[in-house]
From TrEMBL:
The keyword Acyltransferase does not apply. GO terms for molecular function: 3 iron, 4 sulfur cluster binding; metal ion binding. Its cofactor is [3Fe-4S] cluster. The keyword Iron-sulfur applies. InterPro entries: Fe-S_cluster_ET. Keywords: 3Fe-4S, Electron transport, Iron, Iron-sulfur, Metal-binding, Transport. This is Ferredoxin. It comes from Actinocorallia herbida.
Length: 63
């Protein structure tokens, strides 16, 4: 599975990292780190939780 992250939309709400710290990290300024990547399907629920938690819709999860 794959995550896509659009850092340009991030407002630093930090909810992604709060609900799914195993998948989402914040940079030194408190914005989401990275642009997306493949991830283990075993972490699908965590990925979807993180995506739902973001009010800016920064994170998209793909099969
Ligand atoms: Fe940014 Fe959304 Fe996380 S605004 S820090 S991607 S909750």
């Amino acid at each position: 599975m794959r995550l896509e992250i659009d850092p340009a939309l991030c407002q630093g709400h930090a909810r992604c990292a709060a609900v799914a710290p195993e998948l989402f990290e914040l940079d030194d300024d408190g914005y989401i780190a990275g642009r997306g990547r493949e991830f283990d399907p075993a972490l699908e629920e965590a990925a979807r939780k993180g995506a739902r938690a973001c009010p800016e819709k920064v994170i998209t999860v793909f099969e």
